[in-house]
Write a structure and sequence with these properties.
Bound molecules: zinc ion
Order of helices and strands: HEEEHEHEHEEEEEHEHEHEHEEHEEEHE
Oligomer: single chain
CATH superfamily of the largest domain: Ribonuclease Z/Hydroxyacylglutathione hydrolase-like
Strand content: 15-25%
Shape: globular
Helix content: 25-40%
Radius of gyration: 26 Å
Distance between the termini: 74 Å
Number of domains: 2
Strand order of the largest sheet: 6-5-4-3-2-1-14-15
CATH class of the largest domain: Alpha Beta
CATH architecture of the largest domain: 4-Layer Sandwich
Length: about 400
């Protein structure tokens, strides 16, 4: 009888028992690998966040409503306010280009450097903005200058006499270029625009008011960052700036009562506010007054002392927000109650959950229902909020 050639082995030898066994083994290995990769894919798709991502809290409004996919790397634009305790550090990404605005104080410098050059593996920053020369804003920048390539450092045009200032000036020698901030200047970070709305003239009474104020825009999304600017600079902005409206306000001077004047906040009408503030800080930041002003403008507040790192990612139409700690903001505005967003209902236990709540996966199909509704409407229907995800 004519012996067959084995197709899989591609050897010109004839099909024998050993060969058949090898073929069967290869077949099984391929099958198992296929199934495994399918399961792995299914799991990561279904069970966010991705390993490096912290807990998700999502805020819906017109620009949102993103399905649950939390690999923010896919988003072309991302703003991260790192938890640096009492200080400020904002990292902005447009595709694979990065910039920082402030670097936090000495206590968190190591954390900032390890996140930027370690966890995020960023080799170079296109821009580095220093708002002003207080140590809680520039100490971390010194660490970054020593570890990553800095394209252009944009610094405020005044001098200081502190030790931190001199170390910062020395470290700046490592930047490819150093320029003074000028109001009206625009820098491009990929498709994002960085506009300087205010730069010091060296005559402001308080050093905080010398902070460089920027507006970062990407598509229809925009964000204003004011460093530690206070009422004097804010008043000038209200008077001189054509367009202060923005989606996100990185709250000035850690939410101090000397910043975020009602006129300024009303001119911005931010939907979101991120406050960078140390837990139980000695300054009493953020002030009740500032929180109230934001609340009066129906601004949703996120704060680093209770929520850790806060990441906002924008895909050109919608944004999502992730916070490292899933604590609810301390201030809830009345608007929250009526805000319509996606919730998952457990129709048997009469509970409603955030879409990303870990309890959602435990609800059986027949009792699980996805709805787009407001807390108030759901509670009127007899539903109560899940104690874990605290929607
Ligand atoms: Zn500060
Ligand atoms: Zn300051």
């Amino acid at each position: 009888m004519k012996k067959m050639d084995c197709i899989l082995c591609k050897f010109r030898e004839s099909m024998n028992k050993r060969c058949i066994f090898a073929c069967i083994m290869i077949f099984f290995v391929v099958m198992i690998a296929g199934c495994y990769s399918y399961t792995a894919k299914y799991k990561t798709d279904y069970k966010k966040p991705a390993p490096s991502n912290p807990v998700v809290t999502k805020q819906n409004d017109k620009k949102q409503e993103k399905s649950e996919s939390h690999s923010f790397a896919k988003y072309p634009f991302e703003i991260t306010m790192l938890d640096v305790g009492q200080g400020l550090c904002v990292l902005i990404r447009e595709n694979d280009e990065y910039m920082v605005y402030d670097g936090g104080g000495g206590d968190s410098s190591r954390r900032v450097v390890s996140i930027v050059s370690g966890a995020k593996n960023i080799k170079s920053l296109r821009y580095m903005f220093a708002s002003h020369y207080d140590q809680d804003h520039i100490s971390g920048l010194i660490g970054l200058l020593n570890r990553v390539t800095v394209g252009m450092a944009i610094i405020p045009g005044y001098q200081e006499k502190t030790k931190t200032y001199f170390s910062f000036k020395r470290a700046l020698e490592k930047a490819r270029s150093v320029v003074y901030a000028n109001s009206g200047q625009r820098y491009k970070l990929g498709n994002a625009n960085i506009d300087i709305l205010y730069a010091t003239n060296g005559k402001e009474e308080k050093e905080n008011d010398r902070s460089t104020v920027i507006k970062v825009s990407y598509g229809n999304f925009s964000c204003i960052i004011t460093g530690d600017a206070e009422a004097e600079t804010e008043a000038k902005l209200v008077k001189d700036s054509a367009n202060l409206s923005c989606d996100l306000y990185i709250v000035g001077h850690h939410g101090s009562s000397t910043s975020s004047t009602p006129d300024f906040v009303a001119a911005m009408k931010p939907k979101l506010a991120f406050i960078s503030v140390g837990k139980d800080n000695k300054f009493g930041h953020p002030s009740k007054k500032t929180l109230k002003t934001l609340e009066n403008n129906s601004t949703k507040i996120y704060r680093s002392d209770t929520q850790g790192d806060i990441v906002l990612a924008y895909d050109g139409k919608e944004y999502s927000i992730i916070t490292a700690k899933n604590e609810a903001p301390l201030v809830k505005s009345a608007a929250d109650e009526n805000l319509e967003q996606d919730y998952v209902l457990n129709t048997k236990r009469m509970k409603y959950h955030r879409k990303n709540c870990k309890n959602v996966v435990t609800i059986s199909d027949k009792n699980r229902k996805l709805v787009h509704s407001s807390k108030k409407a759901l509670e009127n229907e007899g539903y109560s909020p899940c104690g874990y995800c605290q929607p």
